[in-house]
Amino acid sequence: MAVGRRTRELTYDKVPVDVKRIADESMGKGALKSLWNSIVENTPGRNPKFYLILRVVDGEPVGFALFHYAIVSTRRFDYTIGVIDAVCVSTPYRGSGYGSMLTFNVLRRMSLHGVNRVELMLKAKKSDDGELPTLPTVGSERFLFDLGLKKIAYIEDYWREDSLTWGYDCIVCHERPDSCTGVLMVVNES
């Protein structure tokens, strides 16, 4: 059973407690608030419009997707980027397809919105052998490749400043400040 479609302005203070609980469990305590604040800080005019899709099963929230749009303007055209900020599913419900459903719902909405490019960021911690195993905040890496997303950039210490500014517990590197590398994945509309 899914929650009915209601649209209202969403600020972090209005994010449901269950969403914050699922985010803390999936991303680390305080990571959602840090992510939210970082997006607001780095958005011109500091007023991004966030979209939240909540998945409810038997009256209990089990997962969510958070996303927003960014517009890049040139003299000749506007380019719309759909940014998937997080797709999280509560531990007992992982592996049941809810994350995939949420991701497909976000991509469908982005397609209807007319995005030219979809972006998301993975977290990666360097291992002793120099490899970068990733932990996506959006489904599994294999699933993302199957959707056509490609890794295009690695950004060392991507979350360092955010973790110093807003503080959170990283579930990947278990360090503060966060020392994870950001792995940018994208797919362009063709």
Describe the structure.
By secondary structure, the chain is α+β, with helices and mostly antiparallel strands. It has 5 helices and 7 strands; from the N terminus they run ααβββαββαβαβ. Strands 1, 2, 3, 4, 5, 6 and 7 form a 7-stranded mixed sheet that branches. β2 and β3 form a beta hairpin. The longest helix has 16 residues.
Notable traits:
alpha+beta, 7-stranded mixed beta sheet, 5 helices, 190 residues
Outline of this structure?
The chain has helices at 17-27, 31-41, 98-113, 141-146, 160-166; strands at 50-57, 60-73, 78-89, 117-124, 134-136, 150-155, 181-188. It contains five helices and seven strands, in the order ααβββαββαβαβ.
Calculate Rg over CA atoms: 16 Å
Instruction: State the helicity in percent bands.
Output: 25-40%
Low-confidence stretches: none
| H/E series | HHEEEHEEHEHE
Tell me, rounded to a whole number, the average pLDDT.
85
Biggest sheet architecture:
7 strands, mixed
Strand element count: 7
Question: What is the terminal-to-terminal distance?
Answer: 34 Å
* Count of helix runs: 5
Strand content: 25-35%
* SSE class: alpha+beta
The global form is globular
Q: Which oligomeric state applies?
A: single chain
